[in-house]
Specification:
The structure is a single chain. It is built from 5 helices and no strands. Helices cover 86% and strands 0% of the residues.
Length: 125
């Protein structure tokens, strides 16, 4: 039962953080017709999981319980790939194919780049 509580607590904190960070990104970006909040959260989440998993593997920094709390709970609640998929399909459905493709490519390139950067940073620390 403790494992479920750890994942649930992390998920709650991650979801609240996602909501706040996404809102902040939208306020900073101003009036744009693009899901900058989702992009921001996904890139930050990818960077964090790359960095933290690299540190966990190389330095055994996290106990199994902390991995549940952080990786499954917090980062699982923080990242928003389901929203990502919905927004891409919505753009395409609404005839905004360029926005759909731009959203897809930016998430893939920046997200995968952020995971790689996080792993590289974990080796440099």
């Amino acid at each position: 039962m403790i494992k479920v509580l750890l994942v649930g607590t992390g998920g709650f904190l991650g979801s609240v953080s996602r909501y706040l960070m996404s809102g902040l990104a939208h306020r900073i970006a101003g009036q744009v017709n693009f899901p900058v909040g989702t992009l921001t959260v996904n890139v930050i989440g990818c960077l964090a999981i790359g960095l933290l998993s690299g540190l966990a593997e190389s330095r055994q920094l996290f106990s199994p319980e902390m991995r549940l709390l952080i990786f499954i709970g917090f980062l699982g609640g923080f990242t928003t790939f389901s929203t990502f998929g919905y927004e891409i399909v919505s753009f395409a459905r609404d005839g905004q194919l360029m926005a759909s493709l731009a959203n897809l490519m930016l998430h893939l390139v920046l997200g995968l780049g952020a995971v790689w950067t996080g792993l590289a940073l974990s080796r440099a620390i």
